[in-house]
Amino acid sequence: MTTVEQAEKLILAQLKDYGNETVPFEQALGKVLAEPILADRDLPPFNRVTMDGIAVSYDALQNGINTFKIKATQAAGDEPATIDEPNECIEIMTGAVLPASADTVIRYEDVEIRAGQACVYVQDIKKGQNIHPRGIDKKQGDVLAASGQMVTPAIISLAASVGKTHLLVKKTPRVVIISSGDELVDVDQIPSPYQIRKSNSYTVKAVLKQHGLQADVLHIPDDPEVTKIQIQHCLQNYDVLLLSGGISMGKFDYIPQALEDLQVENIFHKVAQRPGKPFWFGRDKDGALVFAFPGNPVATFVCLHRYFLTWLNATLGLPQQLPVYAVLDKDFEFLPALQYYLQVKLKSNQHGQLMASPVEGNGSGDFANLADTEAFLELPLERNEFKKGEVFRVWKF
Amino acid sequence: MTTVEQAEKLILAQLKDYGNETVPFEQALGKVLAEPILADRDLPPFNRVTMDGIAVSYDALQNGINTFKIKATQAAGDEPATIDEPNECIEIMTGAVLPASADTVIRYEDVEIRAGQACVYVQDIKKGQNIHPRGIDKKQGDVLAASGQMVTPAIISLAASVGKTHLLVKKTPRVVIISSGDELVDVDQIPSPYQIRKSNSYTVKAVLKQHGLQADVLHIPDDPEVTKIQIQHCLQNYDVLLLSGGISMGKFDYIPQALEDLQVENIFHKVAQRPGKPFWFGRDKDGALVFAFPGNPVATFVCLHRYFLTWLNATLGLPQQLPVYAVLDKDFEFLPALQYYLQVKLKSNQHGQLMASPVEGNGSGDFANLADTEAFLELPLERNEFKKGEVFRVWKF
To answer: For residue B211, what is the nearest residue in chain A, using CA coordinates?
Structure first.
């Protein structure tokens, strides 16, 4: 059977560039930059005053002058004033441009201003103090944010500060979430005693929304002809089909047959993991990818995070996410020869360690449990006993 | 001067219930539940078959029967079939209701089906296998998600499965983000050599968006009358005013005067921290809160995460977030008697420890740095030297 590692490798071999698009910079939040953001001028663009107070020449202080005539008052945004004589100063505000004839700012708290004069109280004044010098953060033309970075609020700020009203970002793949089966009824319906309501599609849609993807949702009834037509339509109109359920070999699962008829190549079927073992992954001749997750909700949730989001980040060109590790906080046993995804709560301890507490549900169909946990602990395939204090990779959701 | 701890306490004393609203369940993602989600029936609602195969009576197997006549085929969503004789079975699909007359499911892989008969190959069959029993996850009326929980994709799924098309959630406060100062020009404008573009408001707006808050944005020019009118309008029409800049005592900062004239009570001004020392917090007589952050972008970013988001979670009734700790990975010195917020990159190590690497910028005005870091390490006020290997609280952004 395909291992988790092999499955990941096979999926990551299917990367594709879905192109770029230009969006207003505020709408770029959460998207991936397809161009660098460059400094349009030095940052700061001028010697910027960082305290309200007076601007003087340091030499004047050195020469024993401690009372200065206020020649002008200069606010942030004002054209800079000038001092002509050593015993003159400019009353100046935070954010203002340091006048060329001054080099030091003394804050209000350290001077007394009376009758147009400022008297300096303190001794300990450093040349250049209370000034954020031009270009010290970045020089004009420097890269502020590189292509391939995820747009964060900090990057939104950088875009605004350099006047990038629009940003070139990676286009995301067009995704359709497909459920199937006549046992599923709509959320607003009362199911018969042997039916259940659709829920997986909503979960998947919500997770994708958290990752900046708007996906369409489709339900396919148990009818072989309709199934084939609908799957064909999706292969032609979407980049990725995310199926939840309908891929087992049961008599009424028409999806495997439709995929075969439509010549979708099966790259692997079944992964040595629980939950999620029946996971089917394939590729249409025109490049559409099919992630067919098992119907049980926890399995879909594991596979979505472990495989689809990993693929999504990679296909958008994001740097690979650094693995996160956590310490198992009690013994756990799992006998089948499958890589187990254990639902855990996480807590940071005083040693800076992430502690993982298993919250066991009633098997992989128990979705209620997921609302109380935060992550899956990935327990290695080749072992059956996992001891308190051992460290394993963790996948947060 | 107010300490960070005192400031937090004073802010958390200003909690208010902003009421509830009903939204379509999919739109509740990221909001806070104001009602519990209850199981409308047992979960699973019936003894649910978890493998494609045949349903039989375990007693029949015990009595040596290993060949069964297929009496009916039953898919998920079908009304359950019935076996009348011990040597009969139902061919049955994943998700189907277990017929009352059967108690065990044998998967396809372990039987051979030929000419309307199923012959069981394997010995090791357990009574009740491949069945997810009715009510084992939750009983009808059980709480699936409690009031006060943040709506996650898992909770969206629970809502769907119990038919909650709409959810009662906490209303979020109405927030306005205010910038001020004639030195700021719009993003699409070319600033003069002594002006800069607005950027703080966009950063704040993006952070709030990540936390599910839609905020309005307002810029106030340097004019005392206009300032007073605008601030008054905001106090009357919003629950929270988030100011960035304009609160120092500079000659052209009209905001402190406007707040005083409008009788906004100052709860504290200045916190023993860097960046963010000039932070001003107050409350209007009618309850509007004013978070007036210093104008420097990193200070605003620190205060927004450290104070406003902490307040927001608390006022919405979310459980207090557990602190996260990280290990400083190199020595660091900070002399002023202020609590320092050090920008760091984070990395999980093989011991499950979160390691924090300082990325020092050029003082608190250096925003470019924030795009390369992920968190602030909160270094205690009472110390000046911080050693590699020591653990401190970390605030992710």
So the answer is: A210
